[in-house]
Predict the structure of glycine oxidase.
Amino acid sequence: MSRTPAADVLVVGGGIIGLVTAWRAAQRGLVTTVVDPAPGGGAAQVAAGMLAAVTELHHGEQTLLGLNLASAHRYPDFVAELTELTGQDVGHRRCGTLAVALDADDRAHLRELHALQTRSGLDSQWLSGRECRRLEPMLAPGVRGGLRVDGDHQVDPRRLAAALVTACERTGVTLHRAWAERLSVTGGRATGVVTDDGTELAAGQVVLAGGSLSGRLTGVPEQVRPPVRPVKGQVLRLAVPPRYAPFLNRTVRAVVRGSHVYLVPRENGELVVGATSEELGWDTTVTAGGVYELLRDAHELVPGITELPLTETRAGLRPGSPDNAPLLGPTELDGLLLATGHHRNGVLLTPVTGDVLAHALTTGELPDEARPFTPRRFGAAALLEQPA
Ligand code: GLY
């Protein structure tokens, strides 16, 4: 077995969460390695990239809202810094979002969301169907009303991932292209991983940032194994020919028959339509049913969509956690930290995750804003303390 000199930090997983963690750690002077067979891959290759802190607000997720908003506020500076370092455009578009209702049930649901947003001090404006269509002329005539949220923007996750790879390279992060097979634990402390190419990567601290795969690394003691599960999302990509542009000016979304559907228009003419949410284990098959439901629901919102070329269909796996919130920072195993479980918010939470993990890696503590997201909330002791 070959051994490499010990790094200060080893990040297991080179998706956007692992990469931002490595970049921020290296900026703080820590010698950092990322282990991943294909850095820049993962769920970001499928995600639409909505920065939807306000329109994806759910009852009971007020604490997560605080973290989502903190990250949304950091996005402009984060993107500016990344672009200046790498010279790469990440498709950050400050376009806003319109959430619409197609029938009386949707309208009632959206009214309730609006009330929750207002109670939470968030900026969102109720519009009539006619006002929605004035903003977005391609909307179906049947749209009954909507919420205009000018603060929910978008970024292109594929470009973001590519820029983060470059940022890591420019900041001196080593990218070790292999699968991490087993966590090494020595004297009650995480000390590195062994990879499938037979290398032992040693490090002072290990960050497990493997997305939906985070719970599968061999050697992680059961009591600190992250409780993440794969939540499948099927996503379509279409192209808006110049003669139809601008097809949509902002992200348009709705809940149709209980399922979320959203249309995210990129500046380059790509239109992303997502996403299913399926609890099917590790399956990433694109199914006729998934594509049918997305197109059917998107067509109800924006009938003209059927004219557009369909350029790609793809499925990815969100890292779902028991409370839909991420697991950030130190675990009960010395030397092992987590950055996973971001579920529907991985792209949105990328800037704040990088900052939180860099803080935790350099101080051993979580910053105040991230304390509720400690992985220890799922530990055996914490679960015993909860009322039945
Ligand atoms: N945040 C969008 C999704 O997970 O589908």
Notes: Residues 50, 56, 233, 274-275, 318, 344 surround glycine (CB under 6 Å). The longest helix spans residues 62-86. DSSP finds eight helices and 19 strands in the chain. Helices lie at 16-27, 62-86, 104-119, 129-135, 157-170, 288-301, 350-363, 380-385.
